[in-house]
Automatic annotation (TrEMBL):
<feature type="binding site">
    <location>
        <position position="229"/>
    </location>
    <ligand>
        <name>Mg(2+)</name>
    </ligand>
</feature>
<feature type="transmembrane region" description="Helical">
    <location>
        <begin position="232"/>
        <end position="252"/>
    </location>
</feature>
<keyword id="KW-0573">Peptidoglycan synthesis</keyword>
<keyword id="KW-0961">Cell wall biogenesis/degradation</keyword>
<feature type="transmembrane region" description="Helical">
    <location>
        <begin position="147"/>
        <end position="165"/>
    </location>
</feature>
<keyword id="KW-0472">Membrane</keyword>
<dbReference type="GO" id="GO:0008963">
    <property type="term" value="F:phospho-N-acetylmuramoyl-pentapeptide-transferase activity"/>
</dbReference>
<feature type="transmembrane region" description="Helical">
    <location>
        <begin position="298"/>
        <end position="319"/>
    </location>
</feature>
<dbReference type="GO" id="GO:0071555">
    <property type="term" value="P:cell wall organization"/>
</dbReference>
<comment type="similarity">
    <text>Belongs to the glycosyltransferase 4 family. MraY subfamily.</text>
</comment>
<dbReference type="InterPro" id="IPR003524">
    <property type="entry name" value="PNAcMuramoyl-5peptid_Trfase"/>
</dbReference>
<dbReference type="InterPro" id="IPR000715">
    <property type="entry name" value="Glycosyl_transferase_4"/>
</dbReference>
<dbReference type="InterPro" id="IPR018480">
    <property type="entry name" value="PNAcMuramoyl-5peptid_Trfase_CS"/>
</dbReference>
<dbReference type="GO" id="GO:0008360">
    <property type="term" value="P:regulation of cell shape"/>
</dbReference>
<comment type="function">
    <text>Catalyzes the initial step of the lipid cycle reactions in the biosynthesis of the cell wall peptidoglycan: transfers peptidoglycan precursor phospho-MurNAc-pentapeptide from UDP-MurNAc-pentapeptide onto the lipid carrier undecaprenyl phosphate, yielding undecaprenyl-pyrophosphoryl-MurNAc-pentapeptide, known as lipid I.</text>
</comment>
<dbReference type="GO" id="GO:0009252">
    <property type="term" value="P:peptidoglycan biosynthetic process"/>
</dbReference>
<feature type="transmembrane region" description="Helical">
    <location>
        <begin position="177"/>
        <end position="195"/>
    </location>
</feature>
Length: 320
């Protein structure tokens, strides 16, 4: 019961901080002309979003940082979770800055992003392999057992981390989509961490829930601000860190099924076009396919949210 009270209190603190920061940062982003440029090849309904302030992920990152640093629960796990959040968020921020401020549409080059992501993912993987009571083991959902990956543990964790971060990044394409889905996923990790007695992770996850909930006030349709790569990569880092620091990396494709589907749709689309010259989807990532099928943006977001709730329930059954 005390854990639940602490989770709720942490959510409220992060939520309130985000609500306070929003009206401060959004006008600032507008004055600095940090506006989103919508791609011409995207859905035509998105053209009206041109100029909407981006890089709003800074708001969530600050809220999470303040919430976590003011808790009495600060320890190494929480610090490394914050390193993941801010490390990946920094890569996203640099990418956004190059695209939005320096007007170089491609942002960071692919190899530059990968190098940065590799460094942060490697640090997280090595830390967990050295400090976890399970060593190089990961928990296998549904089977109620662990599997020891041995020398493959660090490469596997690096892959999972980078895949998760980039999948969350791909999910950020509609108003409230990535923030809403991540709110649900983070709620799952907060509850599981509480069940496992992992205080640091349920604090970080609860702070993430509050930040996403508060950000939805400004990011729900019609969005007043976008999180940008700054936010989506920070959220991806948070989800990856929460799972990895509890040895639950294999649960991500289940509870983060939306992230997985978005990423998979891009892989399928690109592979199919290169091999056959034909596209499987009308457009990728997956949320754009449904838009071009005639679904309103809010319907796509709502369906993806509901799907995430269902996947989280499956995740609970897989672990408990």
């Amino acid at each position: 019961m005390n854990d639940l009270k602490e989770i709720v209190f942490t959510i409220i603190i992060s939520f309130v901080i985000t609500l306070i920061l929003g009206p401060i940062f959004i006008p600032m982003l507008k004055r600095l002309k940090f506006g989103q440029t919508v791609r011409d090849e995207g859905p035509k309904t998105h053209l009206s979003k041109n100029g909407t302030p981006t890089m709003g992920g800074i708001i969530m990152m600050i809220a999470i940082l303040i919430t976590c640093l003011t808790t009495t629960r600060l320890n190494k796990d929480m610090i490394f979770a914050l390193v993941a959040i801010f490390g990946f968020g920094l890569i996203g921020f640099i990418d956004d800055y190059i695209k939005v401020v320096l007007k170089r549409s491609l942002g960071l080059r692919a190899y530059q992003k990968i190098v940065g992501q590799l460094i942060i993912a490697t640090v997280l993987a090595i830390y967990q392999s050295k400090t976890s009571i399970l060593g190089t083991q990961v928990i296998v959902p549904f089977l109620k057992t662990n599997i020891d990956l041995g020398i493959f543990y660090i490469p596997f964790i690096i892959f999972v981390t980078i895949a998760t971060v980039n999948s969350v990044n791909l999910t950020d394409g509609l108003d409230g989509l990535a923030s809403g889905v991540t709110l649900i996923v983070a709620s799952f990790f907060a509850m599981i961490a509480s069940h496992l007695g992992n205080t640091s992770i349920y604090i970080v996850s609860a702070a993430l829930v509050g930040a996403c909930l508060g950000f939805l006030k400004f990011n729900a349709h019609p969005a007043q601000v976008f999180m940008g790569d700054t936010g989506s990569m920070a959220l991806g880092g948070a989800v990856a860190a929460a799972a990895i620091l509890m040895n639950l990396s294999l649960i991500i494709p289940i509870v983060g099924g939306i992230y997985f589907a978005e990423s998979l749709s891009v892989i399928i689309q690109v592979t199919s076009f290169k091999l056959t010259g034909k596209r499987v989807f009308k457009m990728s990532p997956l949320h754009h396919h449904f838009e071009l099928e005639g679904w309103h943006e809010t319907k796509v977001v709502t369906v993806f949210w509901i799907t995430s709730v269902i996947l989280s329930v499956i995740g609970f059954l897989a672990l408990l």
